[in-house]
Description:
By secondary structure, the chain is an all-alpha fold. It has helices at residues 4-14, 21-32, 34-62, 76-99, 103-110, 113-120, 124-144, 151-165. α3 (34-62) packs antiparallel against α4, α3 (34-62) crosses α7 and α4 (76-99) packs across α8 (151-165). The radius of gyration is 18 Å and the shape is globular. It is found in: Cellular thylakoid membrane; Membrane.
Amino acid sequence: xxxxxxxxxxxxxxxxxxxxxxAMESLKSYFTSGMDRVKVATMIxxxxxxxxxxxxxRLFEQVPELIRPGGNAYTTRRYAACLRDMDYYLRYSSYxxxxxxxxxxxxxxxxxxRETYNSLGVPIAPTVIGIQIMKDMVKGMAADAxxxxxxxxxxPFDYITREVSEVSI
Length: 169
Ligand SMILES: CCC1=C(C)/C(=C/C2=NC(=C\c3[nH]c(/C=C4\NC(=O)[C@H](C)[C@H]4CC)c(C)c3CCC(=O)O)/C(CCC(=O)O)=C2C)NC1=O
């Protein structure tokens, strides 16, 4: 599992080079956004259950067939599995924000996910909608707290979206 610092050092060490201006710029941007990253991760931790519940409600309003007979999130068990997956995406996104690196997502969340979803008939498009709803909710909370630069919030949610979308069913 990598973060901004370890991945940078590993790249430069691989090339046997001292950190140069590019490396310093990248570190500077990571450290200057550091407090905001911590603040947003704290907000996520404190509100995770509410975010997941509200995002789920919004998703099922947008795509009501998911929870109707024949829908993939129909039955209490599958409804709960869906919200649990949303919670995984939210929690791991908060880790990736702190790390400033998506490696934790690749390693812990995305491996084999598409295959699992395909074999269970979990539809990708509404999964992506759910992830994007959570992203927008977190960005809204960050904006309310005066955090202007939200690129680091987009990053993990969009990364999961891109990776999981690669194969559609
Ligand atoms: C931490 C990494 C990790 C991830 C990401 C993960 C995902 C994951 N989601 C699963 C199922 C599932 N995932 C969903 C999700 C949904 N269905 C919908 O219609 C919606 C679009 C969507 C919610 C947004 C559902 C309904 C199931 C159960 C499907 C079934 O058993 O038929 C399964 C199959 C095993 C199980 O049911 O627990 C896995 C492995 N597990 C992990 O350990």
